[in-house]
Write a structure and sequence with these properties.
Layout: E1 3-6, E2 16-22, E3 29-30, E4 35-40, E5 45-49, E6 54-59, E7 66-68, E8 72-77, H1 99-102, H2 106-114, H3 131-140, H4 158-167, H5 193-208, E9 211-219, H6 221-231, H7 242-256, E10 262-264, E11 269-271, E12 277-279, E13 281-283, E14 286-288, E15 291-292, H8 300-316, E16 319-320, H9 321-325, E17 329-333, E18 352-366, E19 369-383, H10 389-404
Parallel strand pairs: 5-16, 12-17, 17-18
Antiparallel strand pairs: 1-8, 2-4, 2-7, 3-6, 4-5, 6-8, 9-19, 10-11, 12-15, 13-14, 18-19
């Protein structure tokens, strides 16, 4: 039976998406869960997986053309099934659309069949490049055919575009004018789609969610010692980071305080059964918060593996839809930038976000004696519609206790 594929909603405020590239062509076989397209939202380019198996019978959304959420982008049918005159109402993305909207108009199809075929001009799509590399090239006016790729099979990746941009010769200097030049006018810098999206999300969050903040010092001395012992037994590419310890502690604490894994829905809370923790990742174009799903079932080392994989694919523009849209709690860590503490803005529709700074040595008093400890400041921003101050304090203290007695994270 033919199944309509519609533009998915990847993020609570997403209104439209753009197919950057189709991995499959009309007539190609498609397996369930196979990546069939790269879709660009305001904040990221994600891999879109087929929800059903069959044959990609019709591509409706052309690459580079924005499509509203919920509108038809493709049709998948059984292997020997022709494209029906009228497509089924139910779409594979779980939504529904009127049959008349989903069906291809007969007159339009007839005109397309009889129209002479014009050879397609060469486009940048002919060049092998990652989605983020294509976006950077468009924003900087770079012809990708001039860029040498360093990725697998000569594929152009983000660093290749950045290196090419830096290597371009500067414009020749203007000759000195005889008279003093007028004062330069204020420069207008257009915002990228990602920066516009960040502006909208943060303004909406601060306007709609009444934020409040609680902060605590976390003694990371034992956690850092445990991390060192664990990493001595692991290869370099699998080592556990400080952020991995924080993710694991947060996952355990969320299991004990499920309200902070919930969404505010007007007159009720949506209690999410899966703990999917988003981690703030800074890209050259802006900030994204993709997530690690099912953290409640993952060990510390599994979280470390998933975190490294997520960060690598975020930088190469190959995130999956569920990683971008299904997070339930988020963590922002500015420790690597030598920040001691800060307060983060809640990522909608989350109930809270944990902001952590660097781990640094400082004097502490233990049992009346002066000692040196490795301290990290953690600040929890909470939506007051979901929880009160005492509940937020109990949740943050739970995270602190887990990090200060880190062996519990290995159980």
């Amino acid at each position: 039976m033919a199944t309509t594929i519609v533009m998915p909603q990847m993020g609570y405020d997403m209104k439209e998406g753009t197919v950057v590239r189709w991995h499959k062509q009309e007539g190609d076989a498609v397996a369930r869960g196979e990546v069939i397209a790269d879709i660009q939202t305001d904040k990221a380019t994600v891999e879109f997986e087929a929800y059903t198996a069959g044959v990609l019978r019709k591509i409706v959304a052309q690459a580079g053309v924005p499509v509203p959420v919920g509108e038809l982008i493709a049709v998948i049918t059984d292997p020997n099934e022709p494209l029906p005159d009228e497509l089924p109402v139910k779409g594979a993305a779980g939504g529904s659309a009127p049959a008349a909207q989903a069906a291809l108009p007969a007159a339009q199809a007839s005109a397309a069949a009889t129209a002479p075929v014009q050879p397609a001009p060469a486009t940048p799509a002919d060049v092998r490049a990652s989605p983020i590399a294509r976006r950077l090239a468009r924003e900087r006016g770079i012809d990708l055919s001039l860029v040498v790729g360093s990725g697998p099979g000569g594929r152009i990746v983000e660093k290749d575009v950045l290196s090419f941009a830096e290597a371009r010769p500067a414009a020749p200097a203007r000759p000195a004018a005889a008279a003093p030049a007028p004062a330069p006018a204020a420069q207008r810098v257009e915002l990228s789609r990602m920066r516009q999206a960040i502006a909208k999300i943060t303004v909406d969050s601060k306007r709609e969610a009444p934020h409040f903040y609680v902060t605590s010092d976390v003694d990371m001395t034992r956690a850092m010692s445990l991390r060192r012992e664990i990493n001595e037994t692991l290869p370099a590419e699998r080592r556990v980071s400080v952020n991995d310890l924080i993710i694991k502690a947060s996952a355990v604490a969320l299991g004990r305080h499920p309200k902070f894994n919930a969404f505010f829905r007007g007159d009720h809370l949506q209690m999410n059964p899966s703990i999917n923790i988003g981690i703030a990742i800074a890209l050259p174009a802006g900030l994204i918060v993709p997530g690690i799903g099912g953290c409640q079932d993952k060990s510390l080392v599994q979280i470390a593996d998933a975190s490294k994989d997520l960060i690598a694919r975020a930088n190469s523009g190959t995130l999956r839809n569920d990683e971008y849209s299904n997070t339930t709690f988020s963590i922002s860590n500015l420790g690597p930038f030598d920040v001691d503490s800060f307060a983060a803005i809640i990522f909608p529709p989350h109930a809270a976000i944990l902001a952590v700074g660097r781990v640094k040595e400082q004097p502490v008093v233990r049992e009346g004696q002066l000692a040196v400890a490795q301290i990290m400041k953690a600040t929890l921003a909470t939506d007051h519609r979901v929880a009160d101050g005492a509940e937020a304090a109990q949740f943050l203290v739970e995270i602190r206790k887990l990090l200060e007695a880190p062996l519990s994270l290995l159980l």
